[in-house]
Amino acid sequence: MLIRVIYVSTAVGPQTSDVTNSILKRAQAWNKANNITGVLCQGQGVYLQALEGERPVVTKLYSRIYTDKRHTNVEMIHCESITKRRYDKWSMAHVSLSDIDPQKKVEWPELDPYSFTGLLVMARIDELLESGSVIQSPEE
Ligand SMILES: Cc1cc2nc3c(=O)[nH]c(=O)nc-3n(C[C@H](O)[C@H](O)[C@H](O)COP(=O)(O)O)c2cc1C
Q1: What pLDDT score was predicted for residue 48?
Q2: Looking at residues 12-39, what average pLDDT do you find?
Q3: What is the pTM (predicted TM-score) of this model?
Q4: Domain 2-136 adopts which CATH fold?
Q5: pLDDT of residue 11
Q6: Which has the closest alpha carbon to 130: 95, 102, 85, 105?
Q7: DSSP secondary-structure letter at 101?
């Protein structure tokens, strides 16, 4: 059975490109090998990640991510059974919120995903993905 989980978390240190690259390198390799797809949005001190895959695999991955010392205040904001993947093109797409185009910044000036509902977050992620400039998916 497939599920999709979305969580939000707070970065513990600065979200430098070194930190991002190490997370993405690991995520893209492991996720590809384990049939996980998703999106990692980051910036303004927060992470927002969608993970899709077989339920036991996502559950174990989420619990590993949950205890990762690079972030804290991990809150699951959405979890649902799915029949079709939404992010099936990416083992882990990356959206850097600092690269959002000015138009989107006007529409979405404050990023406070802790106050978002799951469905609203998914709509935002989809908007970000549609804006080609913010997608970085180096290995795909
Ligand atoms: C924000 C964030 C997102 C992450 N996303 C993934 C991911 O999608 N896939 C993955 O395998 N590891 C991901 N990681 C890394 C895991 O938390 C963990 O470091 C990795 O699975 C190795 O775990 P281990 O040292 O217990 O083997 C992420 C870490 C952070 C901080």
Answers
A1: 92
A2: 93
A3: 0.90
A4: Alpha-Beta Plaits (3.30.70)
A5: 96
A6: 95
A7: -
**129: Cβ below 6 Å to ligand 1?**
no
Helix (H, G, I), strand (E, B) or coil at 125: helix
Q: Whose CA is nearest to atom 24 of ligand 1?
A: 64
Cβ 25 under 6 angstroms from ligand 1: no
Structure tokens at 34: 């384990």
Instruction: Name the residue type at position 69.
Output: K
Q: How far apart are CA 7 and CA 129, in angstroms?
A: 17
Q: What does DSSP assign to residue 14?
A: -
User: Is there a contact between 35 and 42 (Cβ–Cβ < 8 Å)?
Assistant: no
The CA-atom distances, in angstroms, between 94 and each of 16, 42, 45, 61, 106 are: 14, 8, 15, 18, 21
Structure-block tokens of residue 65: 């991510």
Query: Using a 6 Å cutoff on CB, does residue 135 contact ligand 1?
Result: no
* Domain layout of the chain by residue ranges: 2-136
> What is d(CA 63, CA 43) in angstroms, rounded to the nearest whole number?
22
- The model's pLDDT over 63-108, given as tens digits with 9 standing for 90+, comes to 999 999 999 999 999 999 999 999 998 898 888 876 666 665 555 5
